Every structure is written in C-alpha cells, then in structure tokens.
Amino acid sequence: MNKTHQPLTHWYPGTVAGIRPSAWWYWGRAVYVSRRDYWRITKKFLAVGIPLGVVGVLLHYSLAFWAAMALAEIGLVLLAYSLFGLYRMYGHPGVSYIRRLVELGGLEGKITVADLHIGTYRHASSLGRSARSHHSIGGLLERGRRVARRSSAGCP
User: Fold this and answer.
1) Per DSSP, what are the bridge partners of residue 142?
2) Strand arrangement, sheet containing 112-113
3) Residue 79 half-sphere exposure, CB side, CA atoms within 13 Å?
4) Contact, 67 vs 53, CB < 8 A?
5) 147: helix, coil or strand?
6) Tens of pLDDT along 22-36?
7) What backbone phi and psi angles, to 5 degrees, belong to 145?
8) Less packed terminus of the chain by CB within 10 Å, N or C?
9) What CA–CA distances, in Å, run from 126 to 13, 95, 105, 120, 134?
10) How do residues 75-128 score in pLDDT, each as one tens digit?
11) Is 72 in a helix, a strand, or coil?
12) In terms of C-beta density within 10 A (0-12 exposed, 13-18 middle, 19 or more buried), how is residue 90 classed?
C-alpha cells in the first residue's frame, strides 16, 4: 500500500490568488460541479429513449419513435433551462443581484462578505406572509470586524 498523497486533478481551471475570476468562470464552475448529476440524468433519458426509438424504427411503430423524439426534445429543453438557471445564479445576473443586496444593506466602500445566506423559498414565502417587504444583510466584515447586521421588515 502506498501512503503518498496524490493531489486530485480537475479538468476545470483553478483560480489565481489575488485575481477575481469572471462571472463566466463561476458559471462554468457550477456546470463542472454538476456534471455528474447531468450525466446521471442523461443516462436515464437514454435508457428510456434508445429502446423506444429502436422499437419505433425496427417495428415500424411510429408512436414509439415519436415518443423517443419527444423525450429527447424534453431532455434538451430541461438541460437548457437548467444551464440558464445556473447562469442566472452564478453568472452576470447573480453578480448584479449580490450588488443589489449590498446596496439594500446601505453599505459602501470596500467590504468583505463573510457569509451571505439568502435562505430558501420556504423562508422567503413565510416572511412574505407576515410583511410586505423584508431586507436582510448579515455577516459583513470590514478589516476583520463586523460592520453591519441589518434587518428590516414591514410596510413601505
């Protein structure tokens, strides 16, 4: 047994310390991290679609063939929708969203975000029932000390 540690190599390029990656890099990284899930889903679509297509072609059963084509189209639409969703979260729209959250917190200048937790739909939904608007910014640090813990909810 060999006890030497072999570092993992990744296909996706890493970042350079001190240089912030572009929004495209973050989106690409999110897709790279999700690659196994995408492959798992693709195999399920293929496991159903290929036999349907083969039955349709070999047995001249057009309903099976067109069902396979519909399944392929649905799979491609879902893939595109997923990639677009990842772009909205990690790409350029996500950067704008984070900037807007910081503006809502009334913060200016150089800040370090230690943790920005937006929450889940369940949390947002329950907050929405009790107030017309809710703004929450927390965990923001400036030179190692906390500068803001702002939360406001209520009617405008």
Assistant:
1) 145
2) 112-113, 133-142, 145-154
3) 15
4) no
5) strand
6) 889 889 998 998 999
7) -120, 150
8) N
9) 40, 26, 21, 10, 11
10) 999 999 999 999 998 888 888 887 887 788 787 777 766 554 555 555 555 555
11) helix
12) buried
**Pair 84, 93: CB distance under 8 Å:** no
Amino acid at 96: S
State pLDDT tens for residues 31-84. Answer: 998 999 999 999 999 999 999 999 999 999 999 999 999 999 999 999 999 999
Tokens at 33, concatenated: 């991290």
Residue whose pair of structure tokens reads 């060999």 in the numeric block: 2
Read off the amino acid at residue 98: I
Please check whether residue 153 is in contact with residue 130, taking contact to mean a CB–CB distance below 8 angstroms.
yes
